[in-house]
Design goal:
Distance between the termini: 52 Å
Structural class: alpha+beta
Number of strands: 6
Oligomer: single chain
Order of helices and strands: HHHHHHHEEEEEEH
Helix content: 40-55%
Strand content: 25-35%
Largest sheet: 6 strands, antiparallel
Length: 255
Amino acid sequence: MTFSYSLFLALLLLFLGLCFWAGWRVGERTDFLSPTPDRPNSTVTLFIVVFGTIAGHLLGTGFFAAQAAWCRATSVCFDPGFDPNIDRALARGGAGARDASDLALEMWLFAMLLIGAATGSIAHWLVQREAVSGKTDAIAFGWLNPAVQAVKKGDSFVVAYVLTKTSHECFTIAYEGTVQQLALDEEQSIRFVVLNDVDRFLVKISENGLERVDAPSTPITQLQITAVEIANVALEVVRAPDMDVAAIEAEDAGS
């Protein structure tokens, strides 16, 4: 790809939309599950970026319009010697940039950075509102959304039973533990799972079906299992006792 001034302008114009997208994705993330990665050529991602671009430039132009109105109303102004409005500078294109001072270029880029940070923060705040997340979580988390919503409430946790591909004769190794984190791939298949307080057991496959065979072992504090080793996963949402939930809430309030 050949770099040109037109490409640079396009990246600056889209910068606010990319900030909005980044804030949106970070806001979607939970301690339990990361959102499904964006698919290539995703129309949803394109919509978020374009919407964020428009919203960010509206935010920036709105700020400069309010600043100009304040100056006219109060005459309390500071003249930097150049037009501080980055959107107007971008609209003028290369001609305006060639005549700009070093300070003007510095302030324009700094203003764009601040507006981008504000745009990303708004997206982060917006996606965490229940009125929005109630509609977008189903897209972001797919089939795991019910488990995510249960964990978000703070009164439930998820237990996973992971059947691995490691086997010998008629026995297969399996693990049981509390899910700390899950990650999905683009096809919404489990990419990896991190378990806490893990118990190991064997699954015996015989003519009579499947049989769990427990063996004495020391629980594993934490274990990550990747998709390469996973044959199947069963998830169970367990509601924590009310006493435990109250104790955690009291601890969080004290800290």
